[in-house]
Write a structure and sequence with these properties.
single chain; elongated; 6-stranded antiparallel beta barrel; Thrombin, subunit H; Immunoglobulin-like; 26 strands; 7-stranded mixed β-sheet; mainly beta
Length: about 400
């Protein structure tokens, strides 16, 4: 007989009768066969045919040892009594092992001890419980010293170990770490001497107010002070960033041999194109400056180069016939930016008829004369080969230096 599957079986703990519904004829079930419900096996003694309501029963060889079962699926397994006994013993062993594992897990979670777990095949393993692991870890941490008494640095330059042979814990300000807190008015040049002399190497931070001497710019600044001291040697670097500026420029300077360098502003996308400036020949502003006015356009570079350009329109009314019977015009150019001196170069080219759009660059003309009048003005005289009507456009360029 093959496995017989049952949809609805019920039995209570300690009972020997299993109630079956669903019109199952169990009269052919033999003694020694097994009933499996909910993963547990039980030996069957006998079965019955269904009554008029389709109900039948199974009688077990021993009272049901499991929990109460109601309306659960089950299956009848044809087998001999010895095989069932073996299966039952294995099931009992597994159940006992599961109970043992549950007990060991409780010990692992709650008790400070070594936990040993032995498998059904006899192999065992021993491991620390969680409370024991926590205790051993805390003991290891405690062995490194505590944040009290001699195990904490006794001065800002204390490099000795504690009594446990381990490095001491640091306080705020030791070796310059942490430094000044809050906002202060302090001379940037005296910042290290006023707070950090004889502290070895380290760093400190402070917000320095805008009215402080030797500042990089007229603004409240975050200042990072990096330093190293060794006897008479005191080298350091300062990095300053505006505290509340919409354009967070970054300034740096260095001190070596007791002498401070000038503040340098770091190039970034916010200050590359702006107003150029210089101090004693050292650029202090943007890299490029561009501008325009009624006199033309100009471009200044941080290295001192200045380029001025101008479109010069020559009208028919400004042309005049000279003794050579060729039209001539002169044009004065007030430059859009001031050169440092009159040692700049003039370039003129062109022409185009602005009325018709015709390109007259092939038209013969002569730059009769050009001259530099001053740092801010120059002029040129053109002579053309014919008095063609219409406006001509000439282009002027002046190249020199603004410092």
């Amino acid at each position: 007989m093959a496995f017989h599957y049952i949809d609805n079986a019920s039995v209570n703990n300690g009972d020997s009768t299993v109630a079956i519904t669903g019109n199952h004829d169990l009269s052919g079930v033999l003694s020694g066969w097994a009933l499996q419900i909910g993963g547990l096996l039980a030996e069957i003694k006998q079965g019955t045919a269904p009554d008029g309501s389709g109900n039948s029963t199974l009688t077990l060889a021993a009272p049901w040892a499991g929990s109460n079962i109601s309306g659960q699926p089950a299956q009848i397994i044809p087998m001999g009594g010895s095989a069932l006994n073996t299966a039952t013993e294995k099931a009992a062993d597994l159940q006992a092992y599961a109970i043992e594992v549950h007990k060991k897990l409780e010990e692992y979670a709650l008790e400070d001890k070594d936990v040993t777990l032995t498998a059904p095949d006899g192999e065992s393993a021993t491991f620390y419980s969680l409370p024991k692991v926590d205790r051993l870890f805390q003991a290891m941490v405690d062995s490194q010293g505590t944040a009290a008494g001699y195990d904490v640095t006794s001065s800002s330059t204390d490099t000795s170990n504690g009594v446990n042979g381990q490095p001491k814990l640091l306080k705020r300000g030791d070796f310059g770490i942490g430094g000044i807190a809050g906002v202060a008015t302090v001379d940037y040049d005296l910042l290290p001497e006023s707070e950090y002399v004889n502290r070895g190497a380290g760093f400190c931070t402070v917000v320095v107010l805008a009215n402080s001497p030797n500042r990089p710019a007229n603004a409240d600044m975050y200042v990072l002070h990096l330093f190293y001291t060794n006897g008479s040697i005191y080298n350091c670097t300062q990095i300053a960033i505006p505290y509340s500026s919409a354009s967070p420029d970054l300034y740096t300077r260095h001190r070596s041999g007791g002498v401070w360098s000038s503040w340098l502003k770091t190039l970034n996308t916010g200050n590359m194109v702006a107003t150029v400036s210089q101090s004693a020949g050292i650029p202090t502003g943007a890299v490029i400056e561009r501008g325009s006015n009624a006199n033309g356009e100009y471009t200044k570079f941080a290295d001192g180069t200045l380029i001025c350009t101008r479109k010069i329109v020559i009208t028919s009314s400004s042309l005049r016939i000279t003794f050579s019977s060729a039209p001539e015009t002169n044009s004065s150019w007030s430059l859009p930016a001031l050169f440092i001196d009159t040692n700049y170069t003039l370039l003129f080219s062109g022409t185009r008829d602005t009325a018709t759009g015709a390109d007259r660059s092939a038209e013969n003309y002569v730059l009769h004369q050009s001259d530099i009048v001053s740092q801010s003005e120059c002029y040129c005289v053109f002579q053309f080969d014919s008095a063609v009507l219409g406006e001509r456009v000439m282009f002027g360029t002046a190249i020199g230096r603004w410092f």
